[in-house]
Every structure is written in C-alpha cells, then in structure tokens.
Amino acid sequence: MNRDSRLSNVLHALLHMAEHEGPMTSETLALCMRTNPVVVRRTMGLLRDKGIVASARGKAGGWTIAADLAQISLRDLYDALGEPAIFAIGHRSDNPDCLVEQAVNAALGDAFAQAEAQLMTRFGAVSLADLAEDFARRHRQVRQHRD
Fold first, then answer.
1. What's the total number of domains in the chain?
2. Highest taxon of the source (predicted)?
3. Between the CA of residue 20 and those of 59, 63, 84, 103, what are the distances in Å?
C-alpha cells in the first residue's frame, strides 16, 4: 500500500529548519529528508504560497520559516499540501443501485467522516512549536543519557 508521507516529510524539514540558523538549501533539506531537491522545492513552494516559509536565491539563499511556530498547526500544513487523502481504504462503487453496496457505503462513509473529523481536530490542536518542544525534550534526554 502506498502511503502519502508528504506531511511527515514537511514536518521533518521544518523542524530541521527551526533548529538551523539561517536559510537551508533544497539540497541540504533533501539530505535530511532522504529525498530529491526537486521534491523539496516543489513541496516548499506549496508552503511558501501559504506564507509558512520564505525562499531567497543566491549564494546565501535557501528556505527559512516565515511564520511563528506556535501559529502553524498540523492542519495548516495538511491544507497547504492540498489535503492529501487520509485513508487508503474506500467505498465500492461498482453498482450504485445495489442495496447491499448502499448499506455498506453508508456505514463506511459515516465511520470515515467521524475519524477524519477527529483527526482534523487533533491536527488543528498541534503546532510546530509543540513538535519543536517535543524534539528539544528528546534531544536533552539523549544528551543526559550520554553524559
């Protein structure tokens, strides 16, 4: 099953950017994310269109976060990415007149709608600042364990 990992990739990149002083190039972010710089540019372009990141060209150029981490929610990022499909499963629509298919689709549709609503509520409640703090806490724990 193919999974859409763009949201996870974007979060990964943004947390690296939050920890980095100055702009990060698409090439550097691609190394962090283990992807192609073209994928980084395409994805960051979507975030730039929403005012989440900014880009600068030239030798000292690259991508920077343009908004307050506390004001950027997972929902904002999900929306910026074009609202990728949440579920890999879906309805059958081979025979819309079939009463069994109608009953199954109604039950599944209701369950999917409820699950998606809960997920979107949760996405709206988690900010990049929350994730950055969680990362910082984990990093401190690792450093303390090593010392």
1. 1
2. Bacteria
3. 17, 11, 28, 53
